[in-house]
Amino acid sequence: MKEKLPPGEKRKKQPDQGLTLDFVFGYRGYDCRDNVFSLKTGEIVYHVAALGIVLNAEQNVQRFYNCHTDDILCLAVSPDMSLVATGQ
Fold it and tell me: What is the pTM of this model?
């Protein structure tokens, strides 16, 4: 049974459950340009909000890079397409 707390009272411990990010739907294109690249691995890299995303389109799987504290506004890829840099 769920623990019921009076309004305004805080829990003494964190809940046992947590959230995980499975898939991001969307693309930041309304105020950013040239921010989608194909890597030498064949994966696609882009950003949405504060997440850097690497998409393996063949397997429909994404990897997430979530160390930014604000929206990512720029993304660059090295000439050999092996390194990615993002900026907020």
Answer: 0.77
